[in-house]
Design brief:
By secondary structure, the chain is an alpha+beta fold. The chain is built from 10 helices and 4 strands. Strands 2-3-1-4 form a 4-stranded antiparallel beta sheet. Helix 6 (162-204) packs parallel to helix 10 (275-300). The longest helix is centred in the middle third of the chain and has 43 residues, at 162-204.
Length: 301
């Protein structure tokens, strides 16, 4: 009987404050969607780091006629000397494989990469450096190549491609943290809105609460319907958010996005599954805590 009475009070409260309940649902939905998106972005960044860092190469750029190298442009002798160093007993243990790209090959690759870009009209083959592309057994040991080859005759620079990746990942991480910051603000708004909704609901039922107190109802019995109301409203928003996250991964990421960028291994649905219960649990916990705090404060007044 008491259980049925509690759910009867929950239903009455949801009907009386329908507009506020809808507001709680929407705010919770938006905030948790931001939380889920930020979590997915962090998973994607971690996966891309693991994939691309292991495949990042070290580029040994040889001097061209347009570079201000002390010895001028690289010659066949200086190229052969660098190749010999890469094959030497000192460097060979660190190197998985390497290959040489001459100016003609580099120029063809440049034209393909910048096809349709006006910059391709101003670049000639003699401006593209001859390059040794080196794959290391341990990408973290690129300093060995930098220290050994940077001062070699004919070498313009030694560049670890991970430095470019770091810049990209920093931008992606900044976007992820921005989404997380917006989500945090929205969650604060959701908590305040839930607390306000519960207090308004309690105020509209102050007569029933007074009667319950007169007949000896405990504070826990009085508080429970209000807490359940807040949790239900937040759970509806959390479920909507989880649905959007599922659609985002299953339909968009593994649909048009994967088709347009096949070179990137995007987050799979199996990896994204833990995010869905995470947003639901966050929504339920925040609602329960804020509703419990609000109704306790009201009953003390």
């Amino acid at each position: 009987m008491r259980f049925g009475l509690i759910w009867s009070e929950v239903g009455n409260g949801l009907r009386r404050n329908l507009s506020m309940v809808v507001s709680v649902v929407l705010v919770t939905f938006i905030s948790l969607t931001f939380v889920g998106t930020a979590a997915l972005l962090q998973l994607q960044i971690a996966q891309m780091k693991t994939y691309w860092y292991d495949r990042a190469q070290v580029a040994v750029y040889m001097c061209t006629e347009t570079d201000n190298c002390p010895g001028g442009a690289a010659t066949d002798q200086t190229v052969a000397a660098v190749k010999k160093q890469l094959e030497s007993p000192e460097l060979a243990p660190y190197i998985q494989k390497f290959f040489f790209q001459d100016q003609k090959q580099g120029y063809e690759q440049f034209k393909q990469q910048f096809k349709g870009n006006q910059i391709a009209d101003y670049v000639t083959a003699d401006m593209i450096p001859q390059t040794f592309w080196v794959n290391l057994k341990n990408p973290n040991q690129s300093d060995v190549l930098t220290e050994t080859l940077s001062s070699s005759p004919g070498v313009q620079s030694v560049v670890d491609q991970r430095s470019y990746l770091d810049q990209i990942f920093r931008i992606l991480s900044a976007g992820s943290y921005t989404a997380l910051g917006i989500a945090a603000l929205m969650l604060v708004a959701a908590v305040l809105l839930i607390a306000t909704t519960i207090r308004l609901s309690a105020f509209s039922r102050r007569r029933e609460i007074g009667i319950m107190r007169l007949v000896g109802a405990s504070n826990r019995f009085i508080q429970t319907p209000f807490i359940i109301e807040g949790v239900i409203a937040a759970l509806i928003g959390a479920v909507l958010s989880a649905t959007v996250i599922w659609i985002l991964v299953q339909v968009f990421v593994h649909g048009p996005l994967q088709a347009s960028i096949p070179s990137i291994n995007f987050v799979s649905m199996e990896q994204a599954w833990p995010v869905i219960p995470l947003v639901i649990v966050i929504g339920a916990l925040l609602a329960a805590l804020s509703a419990n705090f609000a109704i306790k404060r009201y009953l003390r007044v």
